[in-house]
């Protein structure tokens, strides 16, 4: 942090001002002139919160993608299919048993198992051939998409939100002040906040697992130099399988989460594949904190864009990617 | 540049001119090539309108777009998934600048003005995308170009002012001049054949020109080429520009064929189809994409009947394509061409063995 400020004082200042402006926009009661210029504060706050919660969903998908890429150099273009598959499993289980939590757990385990099978049966056979592996994931994504279309049809499914998460919650953020001087507070769906908290918890857990455990040390060493790690006697194939399972499982639970607060249908796989691609390009490939930062940026850009410039929202997302590629091709938080 | 030319045997004597031309185009030595050329030329007399347009013209168009990917992937080592997006951009530009039923969008320019405009803009678009993609290397190219393609798809879906939203632009005017309706089956077939042949020979030529050789050097060892004084990134961006132009030509043909363009035509699935076509055909030679396109079109057209005949669900066409693609990627890194060559080498090897030959394929 301090090193960043020392090296890039101008950027640090710009960032600081941006954060301050953002905080003021969120916390302060907007003066009437501002409300006239860019609309009600409630709309803005909702867009910001939607952006952050969408970003947390993107983080769940993209963190698995970036983890797999970082260790195995495998651009898993079937990652969106894993997301969709998790969503369908979660839907089927929650309808069958009536338990959302059970659907969540089984989706994680089921998709992780798919990941294990993929790693052992397919990717181990073509280790080191990056391009061929990527091609295989493309073929797999086509096959998975068609199989899922076969099994579940083209309908939209929405996973039932567990009853203890239904309903809005009042946040201590003032959106407006009534003429009587009474403050109006922001009401926001509980389930989205829980998802955000869950994503933060998962993110911190991943960071701890990667930086404070023995297995995490192996994974980090593998990201830096795979061959050297194998030479020191670490069972690298086992590490690969574990990481692939974890990454796939994260995509699976992201599917359940996405199916709960949005919906799942054919085509969502592509949408979330694109989201994870852009998130890891922006954040830095192979970096978990990068995925978190990229996810929040892209989620915010998407939601704020669709509120304030509806027909060009996707362009904003894209421009961010272009800007990052132009200024820092390796991504915002990548080391190399 | 002199190094590259020096490595090439120079045949400057006038008497050897004809032979040198043949050496430069080895295809012309084989009777099979002439046979295919003649069949393609007299195709309108063999095939009916449906086969002519739905099978052969479509094959040539998809083959042309996939050819641009083959050029980038085979000679430049850059697997770009946005080639269909560039073609779709050209198609949209034809619709926007030319005449169509959506009069509030189309500017109504005549075709001879709208088409070059579309080609130029699409080439510029592809070059910009390429300039972006070459900022990173290797495997990242796929990710960035896929992101560009997907972003374009979602953008066309969202944008009503220029791209007509998810309904797209319909009833696009096609060229009519010299008393010929160039969209009627037979003239249109010859147009696509002409464009495809032009692109094929252009790629063939460029691959042997100094630029193409330098590009292949960049593919094999960028650091060494940079040390030799070649501008690696400039070569790559130039390759994108050339490939974009070819893809744009394919896109113009496609919009003339369907007379409409909508986001569905530039979807991510369609982008990936182009990759499948190129890989299944083989990305080491320019003929590969056309073979791949032919297989793809035949499968797409007849898979339904065939699957139903075997008592299976006819809607599982994409499953078939996906599995076929997986099989090709698993067993042959060089697509159908690679399989064919391997088979022929084995055949010649077994032929020679009884005669006491050495069997060096």
Task: Give me the strand/helix succession of chain A.
Answer: HHHHHHHEEHHHHHHH
| Tally of alpha and pi helices of chain B | 16
Bulk shape of chain A = globular
Give average pLDDT of chain A, whole number.
83
Overall structural class of chain A, as computed from helix and strand content, comes to: mainly alpha
Rg of chain B over CA atoms, rounded to whole Å, is: 22 Å
Outline of chain B: globular
Number of strands of chain B: 2
What strand line-up does the widest sheet of chain A have?
A: 1-2
C-alpha end-to-end distance of chain A: 18 Å
Mean pLDDT of chain B: 78
Largest interface: A-B, 40 and 41 residues
* Share of residues in strands of chain B: under 5%
Strand order of the largest sheet of chain B: 1-2
Tell me what the structure shows:
The complex is a heterodimer of chains A (336) and B (361). Chain A is built from 14 helices and two strands. With 336 residues, chain A is mainly α. In chain A, strands 1-2 form a two-stranded antiparallel sheet. In chain A, strand 1 (168-177) and strand 2 (183-189) form a beta hairpin. The longest helix of chain A is centred in the N-terminal third of the chain and has 32 residues, at 41-72. Chain A starts with a helix and ends in a 9-residue tail after the last helix. The mean pLDDT of chain A is 83. Chain B is mainly α. Chain B has 16 helices and two strands. Chain B has helices spanning 2-6, 17-24, 31-41, 43-46, 49-76, 83-97, 111-133, 139-158, 185-208, 210-220, 222-227, 232-258, 268-281, 287-309, 317-331, 335-352, and strands spanning 176-177, 180-181. Chain B has a two-stranded antiparallel ribbon with strand order 1-2. In chain B, helix 9 (185-208) runs antiparallel to helix 12 (232-258). The longest helix of chain B has 28 residues, at 49-76. Chain B is globular. Chain B starts with a helix and ends in a 9-residue tail after the last helix. Classes of the chains: A mainly alpha (336), B mainly alpha (361). Chains A and B meet through helix 7, helix 12 and helix 14 of A and helix 8, helix 13 and helix 15 of B.
